[in-house]
């Protein structure tokens, strides 16, 4: 086995993983220590609106016992799930169609090129006027920001299929529907998984952002209320909870994507 192949097949051992976790924990402790020093005796001491690390950690732990936090987390995850479902269905359908059919690609690609670079937050004023600070605001924001990652990955996945396989299916006169269901879609599944993981991260950020900027229900709205009531320690605590939610969410999706690729690689 070549050195390059050995490198590609290398996986972290238990000891290496433990060391990585230890280094990450040490970095976090150093960061907290620096934060505490900066806000107590350092150059940012007594800065209005900037709590110390100890105050933030205390607020974070206090929030763990709050039913309001868990209710808001549940609402946020529910809105993310709905927006992600819409983004997956629309993104895969459009991406596969654009990747498989030159005619559909010629029709939809100009629209995609115009709309895709627009930041989702730009849609907020219009959506706020139409939907108001309702759950639908978070769903719409999440969908508009997350659909493109799925669409692009689906399109790339279809176009990455070996042309010889597609030519063979045409030579065998396989119906297009059968070609799609037995060749195109199964081959593009790993790309779908990557698109879903990327999309989910965008959607989570935008659903929380819709609450902070537009008052949509969920964790973002809780952060907005804490800011309006002048409780910076609670704001920072909620931001930490948002980070933990995002880290957990991304870790689950990354693990799922890795398992899917491993399963397909072993077939």
From TrEMBL:
It is found in: Cell membrane. It is a multi-pass membrane protein. One of its GO terms (cellular component) is plasma membrane. The keyword Transmembrane applies. GO terms for biological process: transmembrane transport. PROSITE patterns: ABC_TM1. The keyword Transmembrane applies. Residues 73-257 form the ABC transmembrane type-1 domain. Keywords: Cell membrane, Membrane, Transmembrane, Transmembrane helix, Transport. The chain crosses the membrane at residues 21-38, 77-107, 137-158, 202-226, 238-260. Belongs to the binding-protein-dependent transport system permease family. This is ABC-type nitrate/sulfonate/bicarbonate transport system permease component.
């Amino acid at each position: 086995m070549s050195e390059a192949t050995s490198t590609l097949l290398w996986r972290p051992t238990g000891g290496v993983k433990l060391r990585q976790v230890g280094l990450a924990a040490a970095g976090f402790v150093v960061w907290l220590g620096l934060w505490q020093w900066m806000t107590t005796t350092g150059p940012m001491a007594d800065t209005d609106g900037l709590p110390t690390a100890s105050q933030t950690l205390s607020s974070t732990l206090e929030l763990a016992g709050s039913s309001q936090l868990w209710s808001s987390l549940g609402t946020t995850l529910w809105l993310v799930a709905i927006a992600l479902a819409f983004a997956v269905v629309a993104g895969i359908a459009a991406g596969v169609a654009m990747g498989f059919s030159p005619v559909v690609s010629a029709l939809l690609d100009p629209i995609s090129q115009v709309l895709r670079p627009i930041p989702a937050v730009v849609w907020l004023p219009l959506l706020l006027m139409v939907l108001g600070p309702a759950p639908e605001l978070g769903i719409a924001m999440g969908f508009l920001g997350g659909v493109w990652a799925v669409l692009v990955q689906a399109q790339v996945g279809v176009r990455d299929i070996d042309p010889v396989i597609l030519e063979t299916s045409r030579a065998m006169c396989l119906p297009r529907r059968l070609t799609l269901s037995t060749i195109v879609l199964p081959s593009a599944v790993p790309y779908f998984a990557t698109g879903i993981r990327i999309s989910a991260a965008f959607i989570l950020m935008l659903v929380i952002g819709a609450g902070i900027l537009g008052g949509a229900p969920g964790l973002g709205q809780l952060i907005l209320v804490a800011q309006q009531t002048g409780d910076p320690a609670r704001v920072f605590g909620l931001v930490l909870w948002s980070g933990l939610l995002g880290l957990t969410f991304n870790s689950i999706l990354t693990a799922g994507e890795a398992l899917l690729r491993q399963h397909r690689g072993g077939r």
